[in-house]
Prior knowledge:
Strand content: 15-25%
Shape: globular
Radius of gyration: 22 Å
Bound molecules: S-adenosylmethionine
Order of helices and strands: HHEHHEEHHHHEHEHEEHEEHEHEE
Distance between the termini: 45 Å
CATH architecture of the largest domain: 3-Layer(aba) Sandwich
CATH superfamily of the largest domain: Vaccinia Virus protein VP39
Number of strands: 12
Number of helices: 13
Structural class: alpha/beta
Largest sheet: 7 strands, mixed
Amino acid sequence: xxxxxxxxxxxxxxxxxxxxxxxxxxxxxxxxxxxxxxxxxxxxxxxxxxxxxxxxxxxxxxxxxxxxxxxxxxxxxxxxxxxxxxxxxxxxxxxxxxxxxxxxxxxxxxxxxxxxxxxxxxxxxxxxxxxxxxxxxxxxxxxxxxxxxxxxxxxxxxxxxxxxxxxxxxxxxxxxxxxxxxxxxxxxxxxxxxxxxxxxxxxxxxxxxxxxxxxxxxxxxxxxxxxxxxxxxxxxxxxxxxxxxxxxxxxxxxxxxxxxxxxxxxxxxxxxxxxxxxxxxxxxxxxxxxxxxxxxxxxxxxxxxxxxxxxxxxxxxxxxxxxxxxxxxx
Length: 330
Ligand SMILES: C[S@@+](CC[C@H](N)C(=O)[O-])C[C@H]1O[C@@H](n2cnc3c(N)ncnc32)[C@H](O)[C@@H]1O
């Protein structure tokens, strides 16, 4: 018989939100940036920002107890080992991801009413995402992608391929990893207009600038640019239901030349749908954030690719952290 989680582990899991909330609030108040210039007391910060002294003292003590901050007499400072991770301007910063999770917190709070069926699904249609929201999301994609993209790119054979279309390319972190490893490749990033604007600004002036072009559009409404020998759908199919994925796969098929290669990176679930566990939990993330998103099995993805016209569908990379890769040929 499979072992069950012990009671202590269940207890820890159910209280995990407390530590998460402390870190999310510190990021939302931008406390780490404010301490980068040197130690400050709760009084200093309250005077500068008009915050509540009791609230801030309790929050800062909790952060010190969690070993994110040092406390010396009444002053707080960032642990030196964490400077790079908590500096918003550092390449190693994890703050964009923490801020992205602070926004996820709000949608996760709706889980009970979503499962009960009394949640207003109209709330999923968000038309009011600010530039700040999108910048934080792009930053978060970059943080999770940076190291993982290179590891994954090493397992994708693009010998002889020249032009990649990255649909929903986001920060371009996966395109850049593939460009790094394939010197004759160029890439076109296709994404919503504000994302393209932000990503273009981030890539301009880098060594990849001359090898990346941009197309603004909505993959649900607009045609995709054609004439590519490779198409990438990285962390895209979980946003959609199966029907929408079938029409996206058809568009990807149209965008490819004969013998074109489609690459899908996502969680690929086994037939039980409970493994990998990260994929089962990510499906909940899609449940609370999208109308029809989910994580899919190899069989489901394969069926939908074949309906769209693809053949030779293969799982070319396994894993358990949204690092699985499926390829298919036109
Ligand atoms: C989870 S992110 C993945 C980003 C990138 N592919 C990666 O793996 O890092 C999803 C991306 O799809 C884009 N996206 C979502 N819906 C879209 C649509 N209807 N048309 C174009 N892009 C879309 C988002 O703006 C975002 O950049």
